[in-house]
Design brief:
Elements lengths: L6 H18 L10 E4 L2 E3 L1 H17 L4 E4 L11 E9 L1 H5 L6 E8 L2 E9 L5 E5 L3 E4 L2 E3 L11 E4 L9 H14 L2 E3 L4 H9 L5 E7 L1 H13 L3 E3 L11 E6 L1 H13 L2
Helix pairs in contact: 1-2, 5-6
Length: 263
């Protein structure tokens, strides 16, 4: 098996291959070509082709490894080297030509995150992290923000669009966060939201329900940039389907308190 120090480079190479292909792909003009996996949840042949490109690259680089993703194998194994892949995070944005979507790839060994890469497809920005190696954005080291006052904070979020049963709970949380901060943003790609926390563009982020392929790469970006990521109870999310709270150490503590008080 490759050393963990090799894994960020392998993830970046695979992500960039998929990014190049996605830039050449055109979203289906006819919404009838959008396959519905669930409420407000779409997938196309483009997602599947991008995932195939990534899988081929990862298996060629590390024969015998396993690749887990939404379209391939949605169950998360925890033993050995596992790649956690989102070939197109922000599919709805892509389908509507709204330029906020990404490729996200993480590597975990025995459940421990070792590498994470997120590529903003339209801009080509690359965030990369390795455990114990810090986080970079286009090769330059980045850190989470130093904002301590929630009143000065910009917070990212994601709506519970697939889980409308959580909408009332989320609306209470949103009201409290909105009242306590300078602003809230929702752009539709959790991978990019977490990358923005890692690079200090957001001071914090929360969402009530996310899949591991949405979060694995971004979690490592945030942690290696000096931030904190937990589930809604303050625990390590691991590679689970769960809610997420992320931020610099001060804003994470405040945001987690707000979210827990309005559950």
């Amino acid at each position: 098996m490759n050393s963990p120090l090799d894994l960020p480079a392998i993830a970046e190479a695979a992500a960039l291959r998929a990014t190049a292909w996605l830039r050449s792909a055109r979203p289906p003009e006819d919404p009838e070509e959008w396959e519905t996996k669930g409420r407000h949840d779409f997938v196309t042949s483009i997602d599947r082709e991008a995932e195939s490109i990534i899988t081929e690259a990862l298996l060629a680089a590390v024969p015998g490894c396993r690749v887990m993703g939404e379209e391939l194998a949605p169950d998360t194994p925890t033993d050995g080297l596992v790649w956690v892949v989102d070939p197109l995070d922000g599919t709805t944005n892509f389908l509507h030509r709204y330029p906020q979507y990404a490729v996200a790839i993480a590597a975990a060994i025995d459940g421990q995150l070792e590498a994470g890469v997120v590529v903003h497809v339209p801009r080509g920005t690359v965030w990369r992290a390795g455990r114990g190696m810090g986080t970079t954005m286009d090769g330059t080291a980045v850190t989470v923000s130093t904002t301590r006052d929630p009143g000065h904070a910009l917070i990212g979020t994601g709506f519970p669009f697939k889980h409308l049963e959580h909408l009332t709970e989320y609306q209470r949380q949103f009201a409290m966060v909105m009242q306590g901060t300078s602003e809230v943003r929702r752009a539709g790609s959790a991978a990019l939201d977490l990358a923005d926390v890692a690079s200090g563009h957001f001071d914090g982020f929360w969402e009530l329900e996310l899949a591991p392929w949405d979060t694995a790469a971004g979690m490592l970006l945030v942690r290696e940039a000096g931030g904190v990521v937990t589930d809604l109870e303050g625990r390590d999310p691991g590679l689970r389907h769960t809610g997420l709270v992320a931020g610099n150490p001060w804003l994470h503590e405040w945001l987690l308190g707000v979210v827990r008080s309005e559950k």
